[in-house]
Amino acid sequence: MFHIRFSHRSMNINRPLQGFPPIKGIEWSNLSILLFTHAVALYGIIYVPLQVQTLACAAVYYIFSTLGYHRLWSHRAFKASLPLQWFLILAGASAVQGSCYWWAQRHRSHHRYTDTDKDPYNSKRGLLWTHMGWVIFRTDIPPGGVDTTDLCNNVIVQWQRRWFFFIGLTFGYVIPTVVPGLFWSDWKGGLCFVASLRMTVCHHLLVVEGLIICQEHILYKFHRTYIGSTPYDDKHSPRNHFLTAILTMGEGYHNFHHQFPMDYRNAFRWYQFDPTKWFIAACGYIGLATHLREFPTNEVEKGAFTMKIKELKVVQDSLKWPVPVRDLPVVSWETFQERSRTHTLILVSGFIHDASDFLVNHPGGAHILDTNSGKDMTASFFGGILAMMRVGILAGGVECLGEHAIPPSQRLFIEGAD
């Protein structure tokens, strides 16, 4: 959370929590802030009456906090004018999740090394680590290396990095408390709701998209098939989830975001809920933002197409299909005639079909099949169901079969990649 670390004793834990990396100590400053903020928010919920003005103020300030670091500072998804840079860096500070440099550096590591030990909030380490453990505990495993040259050279980012303690205190606690106190005399409500409860929600939903990462872990480990979607890629844990998008002002389309991280949009479709995208687009319209990055629509749609094909492949593999032509034996006419005495074998377009089990179900009655066993019935019928009964190809027959060789249902058969 904070890039500022108070001095504390090293702490060795012989039996770390399951999934955690070796723990060397506790970030007492981070833990203190979390405990204080949660305690004050809980006190307010229990003992402080919530005024309508205070609730509205908390909602507006929450939206302000969510606009912060992510798309500009972590992903360089657009270029911001100086006024917009100041606005966003102070908005990010109001969530008290650490300096812009600290946050963006770790978020870039998360994207580059997703679900590996170099990912600071690796979802494979478990729900507790992914949600809060990486903030509270110290380990010997550093985040994976990333390029932060742009952050190091940005005067505003470095200014905020040096003075973050005072900036975070001012925009995280003081201003949210003072505004309700001065304008409608609700000092307690300002501290408990606009400052603490709003920040608590931010910590749980936006500590590196906290709810998204927690959701990803839950999906990855337990409910991978039932909650969230992977319309663009399924190699890693990130998933799209509409509820998360609502709670995080559009950051819930995480599957798209991980595939196309430098796109200023988190929601690709026009109808998807992404207020942050709309805000950036509006800033672009009035000249506060420029060079809004968008991945080519063709490439995005290819990703979506690939995932749809994968879904269809799963359905396809659950169905029973005719024996592939290459696997059918080539049978001589004599063998065909001999076996047709004991089995109902029908020759259609060069394929030999064993219709013995189909006699009672044939619409024209069993007599038609029985009396034509061992004969060429190509002129009579050809159907997809009959293709399921193929047992061989007649040698010297008509085995170059054109369009009839593949039933309609099988013409779009998806071959798996080796």
UniProtKB/TrEMBL annotation:
It comes from the Eukaryota. Residues 334-381 form the Cytochrome b5 heme-binding domain. Its main location: membrane. GO terms for molecular function: heme binding; iron ion binding; stearoyl-CoA 9-desaturase activity. It catalyses: octadecanoyl-CoA + 2 Fe(II)-[cytochrome b5] + O2 + 2 H(+) = (9Z)-octadecenoyl-CoA + 2 Fe(III)-[cytochrome b5] + 2 H2O. Its EC number is 1.14.19.1. It is found in: Membrane. The chain crosses the membrane at residues 40-64, 84-104, 163-183. SMART domains: Cyt-b5. Keywords: Electron transport, Fatty acid biosynthesis, Fatty acid metabolism, Heme, Iron, Lipid biosynthesis, Lipid metabolism, Membrane, Metal-binding, Oxidoreductase, Transmembrane, Transmembrane helix, Transport. Signal peptide: none annotated. Its cofactor is Fe(2+). The keyword Metal-binding applies. InterPro entries: Acyl-CoA_deSatase_haem/ster-bd (IPR009160), Acyl-CoA_DS (IPR015876), Cyt_B5-like_heme/steroid-bd (IPR001199), Cyt_B5-like_heme/steroid_sf (IPR036400), Cyt_B5_heme-BS (IPR018506), FA_desaturase_dom (IPR005804), FADS-1_CS (IPR001522). Stearoyl-CoA desaturase that utilizes O(2) and electrons from reduced cytochrome b5 to introduce the first double bond into saturated fatty acyl-CoA substrates. Belongs to the fatty acid desaturase type 1 family. This is Acyl-CoA desaturase. It comes from Grifola frondosa (Maitake). The lineage of its organism: Eukaryota, Fungi, Dikarya, Basidiomycota, Agaricomycotina. The gene is OLE1_0.
